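Just curious. Protein, please.
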Amino acid sequence: MNSIFDTVTHAQDSRPRSATPFSVGLAGIAAGLLTLWMLRDSTALDGATRSTVACLAIIATIAAYELFVARVYLRPSAGLASSPVRSLDVGRVAWRLAALASVYAGIGALYWLLPEYQGAFYRPFWSLLRTLAPYVLVAAPFYFAWMDRHQREVDDAYLLWARLLFRGERPANWRPLREMLAGWMVKAFFLPLMIVYLSTNADHLDASLTLALNAPNSLATFRFMYDLSFAMDLMFGTVGYLCTLRILDSHVRSAEPTTLGWLVALICYQPFWSLISNQYIHYEGSMFWDSWLLSVPTLRIVWGTVIIALLLCYAMATISFGLRFSNLTNRGIITSGPYRFTKHPAYIAKNLSYWMVTVPFIEPLGWRLAVTHCAALIAVNLLYFMRAKTEERHLMNDPEYRAYAEWIAKNGLIARLTRTGT
């Protein structure tokens, strides 16, 4: 009788399936880092090119699993059939291609109009676009042709957009159009940033690795691990924004529906963040953790180790998404990796690392300035708290996330610690 009860309890408490296994993300990052390592001495390739090749290695590794092992295109969420459900209609394919071209044209016009995208900062992004554009032009017709025969729903968002744009036909349901256009807005904003940051980080990673190998010491090792953590995060961020494909079941299910949700997310990134942080919520003082603990070497090593552990947790949270990482959108619920312990491991780890790296409570110029810096960092923490809450409210529309949230409430880290304490 007890064994039956235990079996039922275990079934009720079993963790909901993750959209992609954590182990597959680890295999992907191993392929990406190995690629970066093999290309480290290539003088003909700049940081942007090396990081792009590393991202392609990640995509190839994870996509191979998703397509040939998990066969994610057969999941109900993908909306695809294994065998053709209709004959190919060249006209429908042409309309979808025209819709895609209009989206690209609209995004290109925004880039051209906004001065932000015309400086040297985004040069790695333009370089990548020039490299990928011919491949996209060749692959897009074949992809849409395959989708036309295998997609269960005929009137998808691209077809609806083409009819609205070129024929003036208003759709009966506007939601698919809103989700598609919002998804492209997210990609248009975040993909350039991810590519630029990753390109810069690739060069920093090479320099810190060289320093750690040639002059090994605790601070050089810390710098390398620090750069490595952000390299892993940025690679999977870039991969996520590149791979919004229904055949990989990594398409956008829904986008953040509230203005507040968009505001608190976008404000954390350039160009908005530099303006706000410099004028209103500047929390960095005149001293950082390594200088503060210079006279206490043992504590300095322990403190730096904890920082790296937090940053690795942050990176592992991004890696957990596989090909599905994205701000402001739902592209499949992740329950593996650090997400098996809490709903927001990345935000928790990132915000704790801010306190440990900048030590705003230590300020040689006086306690008043220290209080100001602490208040500013608390404001940053509250900003991420709002991001977490708006994301939860958005994702709660997905029954899979509701099941995951219930499981975390019973089996997450806080629930376990609470039970242990009582």
In short: The chain has a mean pLDDT of 92. The radius of gyration is 23 Å. Residues 22-421 form one domain.
